[in-house]
Write a structure and sequence with these properties.
This protein is of the alpha+beta class. The protein has eleven helices and twelve strands.
């Protein structure tokens, strides 16, 4: 697993270097590699065979094509436009750039404050490798609340990050005909099997989560949802929409109104509750009543404190 993680980081390093440079010579790539914190062997260059193996691995794993312009002998991202709209790769590249900067500049570590994530990211590499090979995974998993872990075979379709946690989406031997979501931080062990599998031709990760917020799909159906937020919170929603369907339909000095089309699942309801009294659900009525009841129950939980005044 450690070897796979090391190779994955080197793929990201090379992709980020060429993408950031636009065009770069092999000489400059070798120069940057000699200074990289990933160069544990402290070699002065990347061997030619290794370089092309990384290049092919990047294309297989990320569908990013690194090409060479023969007249200038420079390397560049051939499908750069596609990469520009690939949010996953942008996230990977930006994350790696920060991590690489921290590793190379020890004095910066105390000045860059990041959110902590559980150690579940350790399982990302074998999952991505299994997805590339289309080989099932043997997984030992322990849900919150369960007394004992249990093991099953998993066919990973995609992975998704949400609220500082990674999730794996696919079908398991426990639920062979149902797409399920598994949190990586609840995985205790994982190995890649020799069992091949095929992702259904009609599966699309983005489409699967299109009408949902977060990773909880639940039983709720997508519908029009209208919320009103205090003016001071409106800019937060404008700069970072809750959902791609977000549309501002009204605003004034006191409040703004946003409309969505999605399923009001547990994840989404929890997010709305973080705005407290600064948010009101206008429709649907059932969602307004649900949040009202939660607020009422929360207030009841604090009643005993009123008697202590």
């Amino acid at each position: 697993m450690a070897a796979n993680a090391k190779l994955f980081n080197r793929y990201i390093w090379l992709t980020d270097l060429i993408y950031s440079a636009g065009r770069i010579t092999r000489e400059d790539i070798n120069h940057r590699w000699a200074m990289s914190s990933l160069n544990e062997e402290q070699s002065s260059s990347i061997p030619e065979r290794t370089f092309h193996r990384w290049k092919n691995g990047i294309e297989d794993l990320f569908h990013i094509v690194i090409a060479c312009d023969k007249p200038t002998n420079t390397y560049f991202i051939e499908n750069r436009q596609e990469l520009a709209v690939n949010k996953t790769m942008q996230w990977l590249l930006h994350t790696f750039a920060v991590t690489n900067l921290i590793n190379q500049s020890g004095q910066m570590r105390e000045r860059i404050l990041l959110e902590t994530m559980p150690s579940d990211a350790l399982f990302l590499t074998p999952i991505l490798e299994a997805m590339r090979l289309q080989h099932a995974l043997h997984v030992t998993y322990k849900k919150f609340g369960d007394d004992q872990p249990h093991s099953f075979t998993m066919q990973p379709y995609c992975v998704k990050a949400f609220k500082q946690r990674w999730y794996m989406v696919g079908c398991s031997s426990d639920h062979p005909n149902t797409i399920r979501v598994y949190a990586l931080d609840r995985i205790q062990s994982m190995t890649i099997s020799d069992i091949p599998y095929q992702i259904p031709s009609d599966f699309d990760g983005k489409a699967y989560f299109k009408h949902f917020y977060g990773v909880w799909t639940g039983e709720e159906k997508p519908e029009k949802i209208v919320i009103q937020v205090a003016a001071r919170d409106a800019d937060y929603l404008r700069s970072l929409p809750l959902h791609p369907s977000q549309r501002e339909i009204e605003s004034n000095a006191d409040y703004a109104v946003f409309e969505y089309y999605l399923a009001a699942t547990f994840d989404f309801r929890q997010e709305l509750l973080t705005y407290g009294s600064h948010l009101v659900v206008r429709e649907p009525l059932w969602l307004a009543n649900t949040l009202y009841n939660i607020g009422r129950d929360t207030m009841h939980n604090y009643k005993h404190l009123q008697h202590k005044k």
